[in-house]
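To close the section, here is one more complete example, presented without commentary so you can practise reading it yourself. The ligand is dinuclear copper ion.
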Amino acid sequence: MSEKHGQGVTRRDLLGTGIKVATIGGLAGVAGRVAVGGGVVTAAGLPGAAQASGNADVPPGQLDEYYGFWSGGHSGEVRVLGLPSMRELMRIPVFNRESASGWGLTNESKKILSEGLTPETKEYLKKQGMVTFDHGDTHHPRMSYTDGAYDGRYVFINDKANTRIARIRCDIMKTDKVLEIPNAHAIHGLRLQRFPKTGYVFCNSEMRIPLPNDGTNMNDPKKYVGMFSAVDADTMKVAWQVMVSGNLDNNDSDYHGKYVAATCYNSEEGVTTAEMTGSPTDHAVFFNIKEIEAAVKAGKVKTISGVPVVDGRKEAKSQFTRYIPVANSPHGCNATPDGKYVVLNGKLSPTVTVVEWAKLDDLFAGKIAEKDCIVANPELGLGPLHTTFDGRGNCYTSVFLDSQIVKWNMADAIKQYSGDKSVNPVRQKLDVHYQVGHTNASMAESKEADGKWLVALCKFSKDRFLNVGPLKPENDQLIDISGDEMKLVHDGPTFAEPHDAIIVHKSKVNPVEIYNPNDPLFADLHAQAKKDGVELGKASVVIRDKKDSKKVRVYMFSQAPAFSMTDFTVKKGDEVTVIVTNIDDIVDLTHGFTMVGHNVCMEVGPQASASITFKADRVGVQYYYCQWFCHALHMEMQGRMLVEA
Ligand code: RUQ
Ligand code: CUA
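Output:
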C-alpha cells in the first residue's frame, strides 16, 4: 500500500469519514488490522536522494557506538542496549523483583524500594505484610543534563502503576533512589530540567483525584485535581507541586530553564471514555518555573502532605500556567534540540501542533493570545503519538494507526502554517511493523542530536517473528536516518513493554568496572560492622546481637572459588543476617550468595558488600552456594548453615 508523501489516496481515506470515529474504532480494532507488507515507502522524486550511510553490523568483539536506555514497561525494569547492534547488554532492576541479583530481597535494595514511600503507603503495605510493591510500570527513561547535553550522572524513570519515580546511577548502573509522589495518582509523563542542569525531575500525575483522597467528593469528578510535580533530582524529595485542570499525559522542558509543557487529555474532566473525548479540543499546559519558584519561596502555597502546592488550574487564572488549546486528546510532547519549539502530538487528530517557546514570554505577559504561540500544525497521518529529531531541521513522528514513521521538515511546516499552501513539509513515510508508539533518534533528547539512528518502538509484532504463542514480543525497529531517506535495518523483539528509549553516545556514559568498597551503598553495612567491632571484607564471624539475642549477624567474604566461611551454626528461630563482601577486585568477577530453600539470593559484585536477612526456621543442614559462575571450581563454592533445634 504505497503512498506519495501526503498526497493521493491515503489510509485515512480508506478508514472512513470522521477522524475521531476512525481513530477510536482503530484503537479498538487494532489487533484485527491486516498486516501490510514490509515495503519501504519513499518520498518520490527527492532531489539527489543519498544512500543512507549507517552500518548496523557490529562484528563479534567490536563495541557499539551508542548506549540505549530502554524502558521495560510493566516488566518494571530498565534495559541497556548497544546500538546500532541492538544487543541487550544489561537489565537494571528498578521497580520489579529480580532473581539473579536478589533485587527486592537484599536489605540494601529493600531499603531503596521502601524508604521513599509515603507514610500512608507504608502503613497500607505493612497491613499486607509487605515492605514495598512487587511490580512497576516504567515508561520514560531520561538521562540527566548539564546545559542541555547529557552528563552521564543519572537516568530517571517513572512508575505509572504505583505513582513513583526512580533514579539510576550511571556509574554502577543500579537504582539508588525510589520516591513515591504524594497528592498524585499514576505518574506517567516524566522529563528533566535541561538548563542549567537537571535540578528538577518533572512528573505528571495522570489520574485526577479528590484532594484529600479520603472518601469525600468521590462522586464529583469536577472536584478532582490533576497534579504536576517537580522533584529535586539531587535529594529526590518533592520540591513543589502545581494543581492543574485535565489529565496530564506527557511533558517536556525547554533548553532555557524557564518553561515546561505538558499535554493534557480529558479537559472535559469526565470519568468515562465518552465523557473524556466529548469536546473537540483539549489543551497543553505550560508551566512558568520562575513564577512557581517565587511563590514557593514567598510561602504563597498550601502545604499538602508536607509538599508546597500552588493552584495552576484554569479557573485560578494564575501566573503559574497557561492553557494552549490543541485538538482532542494530545499525547506526546517533544522539545526540538535547537531549543526553539515543542511538538504536541495529536493522537486523535492527524496533526501535530508546534509551539514556539520564545512566544511564551509574551503570552505570560498578556501581550498575545494562546493561539498566537502556535507556529505550525502539519497533517501527518492517523494517530501521531511522538516526535523525534535529527538535528538538521527534520522531525520524525510515530503514527500509530498508519504504522508509519513520518519524516517532516520544521521550517516547511512553519511556512505552510503561515499561509504558503505550496509547501508540503512531509518528506517521507516509512512503514514500521506494527502500531508504533514511541520513537526516538540518537542524542535527540539533547542539544547534541546527531541524526544517525532512530528506533521505532512498535507495540505489535504479529507475523515478524517465530510464533511464540498468543503473547507476542514487541518489535523495536532500528532505522538509519543518516541519509535523505529513512531505511529500516533491524527488527528487535523485546519483552513487555518498551514504551520509550533514549539513545546516548558512548562518550557520555562512563561506568566503573569494580565497586568502590566505600560506596555510599554500603554505608549501613560499614556502620553495623563498626558497631560489631569487625571490618567488612576481613571478618569471618558469627555475632549474636547483645540486645536482641534472637538476632545473628554472619560476616563473611568471598574470593574465587570460596567463601571465607564454609559453615556456621545458628538456632532454630534465629533472625539471621548474612553479610558478604566480595574481595576479588578482578573485572567481571561477580559472586553470589544463595541459601537453598530460604528465599535468599543476592549478587555481590567485585569489591561490593551485600546483606540479606531471613528466619532460620528449618532445622538441619542448609547449604548456601555461589550462583554466579566465577571459577572452574564455582560448583564447589558453597558452605553449610547448621540449624540447631
Ligand atoms: S506514552 S506510546 Cu507512556 Cu510515553 Cu506514548
Ligand atoms: Cu563465586 Cu561462583
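Once you have examined the C-alpha cells, check your reading against these statements. The pocket of RUQ (ligand 1) is lined by residues 139-140, 188, 250, 331-332, 385-386, 437-438, 499-500 (CB under 6 Å). Residues 19-29 form the longest helix (11 residues).
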